[in-house]
Amino acid sequence: MEKTVNQKAWFLVLPVLLLVAFSAVIPLMTVVNYSVQDTFGNNQFFWAGLGWFEKMLRSERMWDALGRQLMFSGIILAIEIPLGIFVALNMPKSGFWSSFCLVLMSLPLLIPWNVVGTIWQIFGRVDIGLLGYTLDALGINYNYTQDILAAWVTIIVMDVWHWTSLVALLAFAGLKSIPDAYYQAAKIDQASRWKVFRFIELPKMMGVLMIAILLRFMDSFMIYTEPFVVTGGGPGNATTLLSIDLVKMALGQFDLGPAAAFSIMYFLVILLISWVFYTVMTNLDKREG
Amino acid sequence: MAKITLDNLAHSYLPNPGSEDDFALKELNHDWDDGAAYALLGSSGCGKSTLLNIISGLLHPSQGRILFDGKDVTHAPTAERNIAQVFQFPVVYDTMTVHDNLAFPLRNRGRDESYVAERVQEIARMIGMEEMLRKKARGLTADAKQKISLGRGMVRKDVNALLFDEPLTVIDPHMKWELRTQLKQLHHDFGHTMIYVTHDQTEALTFADKVVVMYDGRVVQIGTPEELFERPEHTFVGYFIGSPGMNVIPARIDGNKAYVNGSYVELAQGYKPLDGKVEIGVRPEFAKLSQTEGLPVKVRRVEDVGRHKIIRAEFFGSDIHIIAGEDDHISADMNRVTFDPTRVNVYANDWRVNGEAA
To answer: Within chain A, which residues score under 50 in pLDDT?
Structure first.
C-alpha cells in the first residue's frame, strides 16, 4: 500500500507549539534578550554582549546569595528527607487512623505560600506571636528581625513544617507497595528492625525518595514568597536567597540586564544540579542491577 | 527438629468470630511427627497458608495452643521458634549479593564467617547458583530469585521445621522437578520436619510421606498417597485427588445395594440406613464400559491422553468419567457402565461411611 502524504497533519501540532511558545519559549527569549542589552530608560536598548554575565560572575553579591541558597536547600533536605521517612514509618498502615493521618498531613501542603509566610511571621513575633512570646517569656533571646540565627531557624522550621508532609506522603506510598511476604521473610530470617529498614524498606522506597529529593531541591532552590514575607531577606542580607535577590535587582533597582543574566544562570544552575543528581542516582540503580 | 503439636487450634481473621463460618481455620488437633515430610494440600483459600503462618508464628491463633516438643510456643515470636519458611513469591534482599542473601539468616544469628562461607557454598551448589554468588540479587529472573529464597530457607541446619508455602509456583517445570527432588534429598539427609503447602496434587503426592488434605478451613483427611486414592474420607478428597477426580453420584443405599434412579449398583458391604445427602463415589479407574452389563450411559467424548483414555459420559443426567486402558477398544454400542463393587465408597453428607461385612 502506498503511504499517503498529507502535510496538513502539521496543523494538529500547531496548538501545542503555540502554547509552548507563549508559556516558555517567548518569556525565556525575552529574558535572553534583556541579558545581552543595556538600557538607560526611554525604551532605548544598547548591545552589551556577554558583559552582564561577566559582571554577575564577578559579583560578590550573587555568590553570597548562591551560598546562602545552597545552605538553605542543603539544610532543609537534610531535615525533611529523614524526618519524612521517619514519619512515614510510624504512620498507621491502614484503617481510619491511616486516612486521618494522611488528611492531617496534607493540610500544610494546601496552604498558599504567602499565607504560610504570614502565619509564621505572626507566630514568631515577640509582641503578639504565640511562639515568639513564649520563647521570650522563657528567657530565650529570639527575634527574627534582628538576630541572624533566629531568622534562619524561623525560615527553616517554616519550610520543614510546610513540606515534610510531601516527603512523608511519598515515602508512605513507597512503603505501602512492599508486599507482606518481605516482612514475614525478614522475621523468619531474624532480621533486626534496622536491617528491615536498611535492606527492605529503604531499597523499595528509593524510587519515590529520589522524586521527593528532586522536588524538594528544585522547590527550595526557587523559594521566594515565604522567607520574603517573614524576613524580607533580613536582617541585613542574612536571609536574602537567590530569588529574593533577583527580585530586588530586577524590580527594586530596575537593573534589567544584570537581573536577566542572573536569571539565566540561576535557571542553568537548577537544571545542572537536577541533571547531575538524576544521572548519578539512575546510574547507581543500573550498576547495582 | 521437633514434634509440632496443634491443640484445639483455630483461627479467625475477624476480631469476634461468632459462627463456625467466621473461622478461616476450624478447630484442629494434630501432631506433626518429628522428621516427617508432610504435604498440605487444598484449593486456594482453604486455610493452608493460615495454618502455616500460625506454625511459624507470623500469625497468632484465635484459640488453642501450639507446642514444639511439648513446650507451649503459642505466643512465642517467630525468632524463638527457629523455623525456616519459604513463601510463594520470591523474597530477596535486592541490594545484597546472592551470597549475602544466603548468608543473611546465619549472620543475623551471629554465626562466624568461616561457617557462613562454607554453608553458603554448600547451599549454592545445591540450588545451582555457585556462579552467581557475587551478583546483586536485583537483576535476577523470578525463578533465580525463588531459588535464593529456597536457599535462604535451607541454609540453617538447626531449624525446628522447614515450611514451604507453594514455593515452586514461579519456577520452570523442569527446574520444579529438580528442586523438588533436592528438597526430598535434603529431607532424607537431614531429617527436618517439613511441611509443604501446595494445591498441586502431583507435587504433594511425590514430595510427602503423608498428605494432609484441607477443605474449607478443615483438615478432611491425613494419609499416605495410597490411602487418599483408595479411601477418600471426604468427597472433596476424592474429587481433588486423581485426574480426573472421583465420580460422586447421588444414590439411595439399601443394605448392600446402591440405587441410582431405580437401577442398582452392587456394593461389597452392607450399610445401615443413612440420613441426609447420600452419595456413592467411584474413581474413574474402577469404572468400566460394557456392551451388556451395568447401568446405561451416554458416551460424549473419548480423550486419548497417552497412557490411557478418558471417557466423558452422561450418567442419569450428570457427568461421569471413566478411564479405559490405552489399548482398549471403545465401540459405539458400549452404552453401559459397571463399577468394581470393592472400590465403591459410600458417603453421607460428604463423609465416608464404613460398611458392615455383608
So the answer is: 289
pLDDT at residue A285, rounded to an integer: 65
Provide the pLDDT for residue A289: 44
CA B295 – CA B263 distance, rounded (Å): 7
Mean predicted confidence (pLDDT) in B71-98: 87
* ipTM of the prediction: 0.76
CA gap B241, B150 in Å, rounded: 26
Q: Average of pLDDT values for B47-62? A: 87
Report which residue type is found at B150. Answer: L
CATH 1.10.3720.10 holds for A60-288: yes
All domains in chain B, ordered by first residue: 4-240 (3.40.50.300), 247-357 (2.40.50.140)
Q: What pLDDT does residue A1 have?
A: 63
As given in the structure block, the three cell numbers for residue A200 are: 527492605
Instruction: Tell me how far apart the alpha carbons of residues A166 and A173 are, in angstroms, rounded to a whole number.
Output: 11
Residues of B in contact with A188 (CB under 8 A): 56, 58, 78, 83-85, 105, 153
Nearest CA in chain A to B106: A189
* DSSP letter assigned to residue B75: T
* Dihedrals phi, psi of A38, to nearest 5 degrees: -125, 150
Residue of B nearest to A194 (CA): B108
- In whole angstroms, what is the distance from residue B285 CA to residue B287 CA? 6
CA distance B118 to B113: 9
Residues B216-239 have a mean pLDDT of: 88
Question: What's the Cα-to-Cα distance from A171 to each of A104, A166, A279, A288, rounded to whole Å?
Answer: 16, 9, 21, 21
Cβ-defined contact of B78 to A288 (cutoff 8 Å) = no
Tell me what pLDDT residue A7 has: 83
Residues of B with CB under 8 A from a CB of A: 53, 56-58, 77-79, 83-85, 87-89, 91, 93-96, 104-105, 108-109, 136, 138-139, 149, 152-153
The per-residue pLDDT for A167 is: 95
- Element of type H or E holding B126: helix B113-127
User: Tens digits of per-residue pLDDT, A48-107?
Assistant: 778 888 888 888 888 898 999 999 999 999 999 999 999 999 998 888 999 999 999 999
What distance in Å separates the CA atoms of residue B318 and residue B40, rounded to the nearest whole number?
Answer: 31
Q: Are A169 and A105 in contact (CB under 8 A)?
A: yes
